[in-house]
Design brief:
heterodimer, A: 282 residues, mainly alpha, Glutathione S-transferase Yfyf (Class Pi), Chain A, domain 2, 10 helices, elongated, B: 263 residues, particulate methane monooxygenase, chain B, two-stranded antiparallel ribbon, 9 helices
Chain lengths: 282, 263
């Protein structure tokens, strides 16, 4: 079990002069702590743009009849491609988080490093937020316009495939990945000894419930109301996702409080034992 | 200056100085980037939550001009659209004393709705924008935030602001809707322009039995139907406001640093 990591009081000298790659740069520089935010958002937006153009190109030409060979070629293959891609990404990413997390468990780290890790956590949360928007607003709009216009003959419709079977599970992967990252790298907040945080419980529950609601939705459309009426009762549980995702604000809140604690500790350390450069300056 | 000589005034002046010093305090790592990242990345989750809440509770009445009727549209739209603004009002007021949560949400929601409506309804499915334009709640949200700022009370904001929200969401969106309620002669019948749009642009999978939505005993109220709906919409908006407060208080703020203890 990962032990809570101790924080080594940072030497301002090492921070300023750069004894290591990480501590030599400001952890809140855009190219340091926030790099993951830009790369993550770029990847998610890239996937979204690809899927939108795929549907735009093939939905009307190959997506109307699920029994046709064209549908299998363009949409069933897309469905499996999405799941395989997501599965591989999840395995690689989680594997990296857990493997490297176990390696650094118990090792001391500087305050600036914890600040950088919190910035990375915020980056993952930011990407999760983008994924939530795409799955809760962007694709449901096309799903609405498609299903209020086209006859559905499968649960794997052209708009469901990107939304239900890529972005829905992607949000689960991102939310759970954010927690794993925090558990292994920000033990002051998310170590196992503290218990499971309510913030992540709500966020992860939201994403998981959303996937389970897909089953209710398809069941409802198969024998209750086959037509598309957006305010139909078996759509309502989808709303719970947007509400429970409020747990994201709790993640932001508790990490902000932690940042203030780190700043206070740094200030006290500098007050008690001013570093050599500071003493010279004084 | 004379007022500053009393102990209370001196304490207040001291408190203000401390707050000012705190505001101008320089931190080593906490800088404006955290604010920027927070406010920008939160746009997405707020927009998604607001849009999915509106779509799945009242979406059909917002998708089309011919569904923006005087009976149901003012009632359920007010309820569905106030929930997330209320939650953000609580979060932003509790965290920063910013009376801006509803406006922030409304702007996020407005952008998300237009992106969705333009790319997914207009570009992808070829519906004209003047048939599928989304409503805006920005003006009503500014007023709701103003009421919170003046009353400093969530109870008063719910009791005063939520009914006003219902009225204003309808009123401000009636302006773009009005042209589509003008009479048109179509196949030997007098219909509204929005009715003609609903006939011309096919919605083959929308239940036929749900198209003629103006029915029921409210018709006997004749011209009063709209006002009865708005009054009921205002009542439901109060309930929606407190659902939003529950989300803000217990799903966003209460969980901060609370843990489910392991055995």
């Amino acid at each position: 079990m990962a032990q809570p990591q101790s924080i080594r009081p940072q030497s301002p000298g090492s921070y300023e002069t750069g004894q290591s790659t990480i501590s030599s740069r400001n952890p809140t520089d855009w190219s340091v702590g926030w790099k993951s935010l830009f790369w993550g958002c770029a990847l998610v937006m890239g996937a979204n743009i690809f899927l939108w153009f795929w549907d735009y190109e093939f939905a009307f030409t190959a997506g109307l009849n699920s029994a046709s060979p064209e549908f299998s070629l363009y949409f069933r293959s897309l469905f499996w491609g999405e799941l395989i891609t997501l599965g591989v990404f999840t395995g690689v990413w989680y594997g990296w988080i857990i493997r490297t997390g176990r390696e650094i468990a118990g090792q001391p780290y500087e305050r600036s490093e914890e600040v950088r890790r919190i910035a990375v956590l915020w980056s993952i949360i930011g990407v999760t937020s983008l994924s939530i928007y795409i799955e809760a607003s962007f694709w449901p709009n096309w799903d609405g316009s498609w299903h209020q216009t086209m006859v559905r003959d499968t649960a794997l419709t052209p708009t469901h495939i990107p939304m239900f079977y890529f972005f829905f599970p992607l949000s689960v992967v991102l939310a759970l990945g954010a927690y794993l990252y925090g558990m292994y790298r920000i033990p002051a907040l998310y170590s196992r000894e503290k218990g499971f945080p309510w913030s992540f419980f709500l966020l992860i529950t939201a994403a998981v419930l959303e996937c389970m609601e897909v089953a209710f939705n398809e069941w409802g459309h198969s024998l209750w109301i086959s037509e598309e009426f957006f305010a139909v009762p078996f759509h309502w549980p989808f709303v719970a996702y947007g509400w429970l995702a409020s747990g994201m604000f709790a993640v932001w809140g508790e990490t902000i409080l932690r940042l203030f604690e780190i700043e206070k500790a740094e200030e006290e350390a500098n007050t008690i034992a001013p570093s050599r450069p500071q003493a010279v300056a004084d | 200056m004379a007022a500053a000589t009393t102990p209370a005034a001196l304490a207040e002046a001291q408190r203000r100085l401390e707050l000012r010093a705190l505001l101008q305090k320089k931190y080593k790592w906490i800088d404006g980037k955290w604010d920027l990242v927070f406010w920008i990345t939160a746009i997405f989750v707020v927009a998604g939550a607001a849009d999915i809440t509106k779509q799945l509770f009242a979406g059909d009445w917002d998708f089309w001009t011919d569904w923006k009727d005087p009976q149901w549209w003012p009632v359920i739209t007010a309820f569905a659209t106030i929930i997330i603004p209320s939650a953000l009002q609580y979060i932003q007021w509790a965290a920063w004393r910013f009376p801006t949560g509803a406006t922030y949400t409304a702007v996020c929601f407005f952008m998300a709705a237009w992106v969705g409506r333009y790319f997914q309804w207009h570009v992808a499915e070829s519906y004209p924008m003047n048939f599928v334009w989304p409503i805006s709640t920005v003006c009503a949200a500014i007023i709701l935030d103003w009421i919170l700022m003046k009353t400093k009370s969530f109870i008063l904001t719910s009791l005063i602001g939520a009914p006003i929200w219902a009225l204003l969401v309808w009123a401000f969106n009636y302006i773009p809707l009005a042209p589509f309620l003008q009479p048109a002669h179509f196949m030997q019948h007098v219909l509204t322009v929005s009715d003609v749009q609903g006939i011309v642009y096919i919605r083959s999978q929308t239940p036929e039995y749900l198209r003629h939505i103006e029915r029921g005993a409210l018709r006997s109220f004749l011209g009063e139907t709209q006002y009865v709906s708005l009054a009921f919409g205002g009542t439901l908006a109060v309930a929606g406001y407190w659902i939003g407060q529950f989300i803000g208080r217990y799903l966003a703020v209460w969980p901060i640093r609370r843990y489910i203890k392991t055995l």
